[in-house]
């Protein structure tokens, strides 16, 4: 099929994203991507964070391994730009012989971009992101803080324990664009801007919730994964929230060791809308106004609803 028929420009004429900066903070060191040796079939799962990252890694893992329940995606799919990754993480990835799945929380302009890898970017309403992020932050144990703040190479401020008042925490996150983590809106904007590239697919958390099988089949098509029909029931089952919760140590990073309740705290609720009975009408309206101003109407609508 020719480029005109597919609706995409010829690959040779596409203006591919170029890395223009590095990001360093208590979690991230984007410089590691400079040394990552891409393979043509790599799959990069990208989000701001707490948007369905682990869920999508599990989906991709199950598609690649055709429903194998023993795949430990938390072990084989690292967050590459997490600055506390082991020093040999690139060697470990190079040693993998299967199709690789790599996670990032970087905006596009801080990421080395391969025209041949496949990129899945997952979005989620920022209010849902924040409530999941708060649980993540509040559930973190001392190991979490020791690793992030005690590992040499920290740039900027250390991460502190969260404000116990979730409304105040929410207002601070909105007003300070993602603090105490990283900027929210630039991350969304950067991936929205490249949504039409042939190797980029935007996925929305709400769509995964509404039609998991349909979304998984669309992701399989995008990744060119051919799943035998008799394996689809297992592939789908192993991506259901209840199955992931019951098998959380296989899914959670570090097996959940950095959370008070272990992996079960990391695979927490997997629901949207928890903010509706907690945020005031003004807090919610302030978020919506900020999202519209930062993202524009089309992107803000997609982030809130999944509708393009």
UniProtKB/TrEMBL annotation:
Keyword Heme among record annotations: no
Query: Which EC class is this protein assigned?
Result: transferase
E.C. code = 2.8.2.1
Q: Which InterPro entries match?
A: P-loop_NTPase, Sulfotransferase_dom
Keyword set includes Transit peptide: no
User: What are the protein's UniProt keywords?
Assistant: Transferase
In this protein, which residues make up the domain named Sulfotransferase? 40-285
Database matches in Pfam families: Sulfotransfer_1
Instruction: Report a single Gene Ontology molecular function.
Output: aryl sulfotransferase activity
Say which family it is in.
Belongs to the sulfotransferase 1 family.
**Listed name of the protein:** Aryl sulfotransferase
Q: Which organism is it from?
A: Caulobacter ginsengisoli
The organism's lineage is: Bacteria, Pseudomonadati, Pseudomonadota, Alphaproteobacteria, Caulobacterales
């Amino acid at each position: 099929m020719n480029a005109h028929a597919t609706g995409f420009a010829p690959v040779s004429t596409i203006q591919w994203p170029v890395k223009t900066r590095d990001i360093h903070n208590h979690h991230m060191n984007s410089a590691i991507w400079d040394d990552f040796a891409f393979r043509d079939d790599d799959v990069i799962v990208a989000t701001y964070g707490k948007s369905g990252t682990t869920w999508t890694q599990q989906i991709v893992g199950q598609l690649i391994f055709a429903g194998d329940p023993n795949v430990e995606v938390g072990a084989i799919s690292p967050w590459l730009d997490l600055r506390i990754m082991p020093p040999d993480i690139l060697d470990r990835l190079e040693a993998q012989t299967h199709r690789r799945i790599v996670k990032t929380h970087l905006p596009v302009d801080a990421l080395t971009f391969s025209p041949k890898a496949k990129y899945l970017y997952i979005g989620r309403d920022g209010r849902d992101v924040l409530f999941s992020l708060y649980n993540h932050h509040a559930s973190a144990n001392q190991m979490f803080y020791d690793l992030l703040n005690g590992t040499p190479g920290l740039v900027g401020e250390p991460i502190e324990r969260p404000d116990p008042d979730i409304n105040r925490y929410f207002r601070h996150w909105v007003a300070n664009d993602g603090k105490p983590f990283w900027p929210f809106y630039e991350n969304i904007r950067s991936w929205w801007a490249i949504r039409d590239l042939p190797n980029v697919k935007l996925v929305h958390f709400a769509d995964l919730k509404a039609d998991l099988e349909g979304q998984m089949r669309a992701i399989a098509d995008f990744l060119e994964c051919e799943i035998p029909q008799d394996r689809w029931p297992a592939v789908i089952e192993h991506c259901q929230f209840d199955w992931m919760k019951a098998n959380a140590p296989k899914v959670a990073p570090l097996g959940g060791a950095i959370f008070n309740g272990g992996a079960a705290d990391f695979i927490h609720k997997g629901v949207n809308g928890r903010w509706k009975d907690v945020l005031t009408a003004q807090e919610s309206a302030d978020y919506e106004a900020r999202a519209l101003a930062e993202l524009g109407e089309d992107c803000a609508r997609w982030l809130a609803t999944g509708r393009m």
